[in-house]
Amino acid sequence: MLTADLLLFVVILPLAAPALTAVLLTFASQRVAKNVLPRVLPLLFAGGCVVAHVGRHGWPGQFPPLEAWQWFPYIVAAAAATGLWEANARGFSWSRGATRLFLAVAIPVALLARPYVIDVWSRNESAIHLSVLVLAMFIVLALWEYRRRDDASFADRGPAAVAAMATSGVLGLTGSVVLAELAAAIAFSLIGLVLVSRLVCALPCPRAAVRTVACGLTGLAICGHYYSETTIPPLMLLGAAPVAAVFAETRRVHESRAAIRALIRHGPTVLLCGAAVALAYAGAETPGAYVP
Questions:
Q1: For site-directed labelling of 149, which of 59, 159, 192, 289 has its Cα 20 to 30 A away?
Q2: Residues contacting 166, CB < 8 A, separation 6+
Q3: What are 182-201's pLDDT values in tens digits?
Q4: Contact 87, 39 (CB under 8 A)
């Protein structure tokens, strides 16, 4: 049910707050737009996601959180903050790989340590599950951050917004309203920045911003699989959806007509996301009934 509280904290504030702040910084001065904005955009995006979590569920009462989904604000904040570290470590070629590896290890361990690694799995089971998750997450981060052009802007991130909205639908259909709300907050935060970049002024899209989207959605997907009823096939389709758009964007496509370019850029993403939602719907028994 769509309530005023849900509309405010999941839709309006994530949609408007990062986008409006980015517009103000863009028009503040040329120096700010060039030097400051690319560094703070991941933080602005993460801020929209954190606002949704805090507005709907409050800040986690203790650290480490008792529930896995309560790691969400820490995950998006940490992923966004890596952009600041990378900006200061620009001369080190290993910084991006080290950042991905850190997040790929830290997020699955944080989400699964308390209930599974400590209480349920044996040492061998823990090693197998965590190794697979770390490898999968490292690959997802590398693929989502891949780009053919260095001048990428948020205007090119429409497919990621579609994937985030589809993730919200999949998580809601497979048993978790809470996870679906948080994924929707990611989607609306991204949609606001995409619209501003298309309609008002071009906003640069640093890799840390894409990494924040990927980490947030992957963390929610892990929670959906281990604590709810989300199965692997729709999650694999969702992970591949934005990547398909990037690899489809060749120079010939970039120089083609706008309609053809939009079809090739968004078509694979829409098809994969639609298939993921269809699979989730087909396997759903009581959609949205369980809150982890």
A1: 192
A2: 238, 241, 273, 274, 276, 277
A3: 999 999 999 999 999 888 88
A4: yes
